[in-house]
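DM from R.C. (forwarded with permission)

"hey, sorry to bug you on a friday — could you get me a structure for this? deadline for the figure draft is monday and I only need the backbone to look sensible"
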Amino acid sequence: VSHNLLVTPHVCLIRLCHYVLFLFFFFLMIRRPPRSTLFPYTTLFRSPGREGRTSAGYRICSPSEEVVVVMRDPRYDILFEPVPIGPVTARNRFFQVPHGNGMGHRDPSALAAMRGMKAEGGWAVVCTEEVEIHPSSVTAHIEGRLWDDDDLPAHRLVTDAIHEHGSLAGIELAYLGKSVGNLWSRIPPMGPSHLPVRGHDPVQARAMTKQDIADLRRWHTEAVDRSIRAGYDLVYVYAGHDLSIIEHFLSPRYNDRADEYGGTLKNRARLLREILEDSLAVSAGRAAIGCRLTL
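My reply, with the result:
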């Protein structure tokens, strides 16, 4: 007799257990009570601004439309108060800061659905991941892109999904400089000084000239304007996480320039100040300008 045909008592016991478990869960499913009995409240926190909100807290609705009021501890009322951010106002203090999710420029519809879901859940501000502003700075990860006007429709999907639920849309503009090897665009990366790029790519970043700096300011200014035309209410000047060229200029570790953009802290901060001033000027009160800075 073939070994595969042998049935030992151990195997019989295991099969018997499988059948018992199968029958148990089968009868549990067919005898299951209605959903309203198991989970009488299907919507826990309805989005602020909708019909479900009361002065005492949030209404929780069952499938039969029965309404129960959940009282909120008054100590936390401040979290639900509106907060002005420059020319715009967030409806509460729940702020989803910029973060990546692997969708970026490749999956704009999925990205819009995910950001819209956060807005529907009650977040007053919902931000993008880092968004590239020029092909001379391209990360190996799937992030956002706003190189030119051709990228506007994808971003409008995101801002429309966020605005649909009464939230503000934020965007984090990024020029990564020596943090990337530009293996996709093959354009030599730039930095404040001649240094190898971060990571494992055998690529050297070249020091930016004065014309390069002027170009970067122009690219960033154009990206701010596009962001506002795409519907964003908050635009970040990104200078953080050892990923932004603006932070690289701030750091004496990377910046050994001898001109007005190097040396003293005041000089190393010059590019940050110029880009902030450019961004405020082009926004002209149409959106808030923020700065994400790490040192």
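R.C.: lifesaver. The radius of gyration is 27 Å.
me: no worries. Residues 1-6, 33-60 have pLDDT under 50 and may be disordered.
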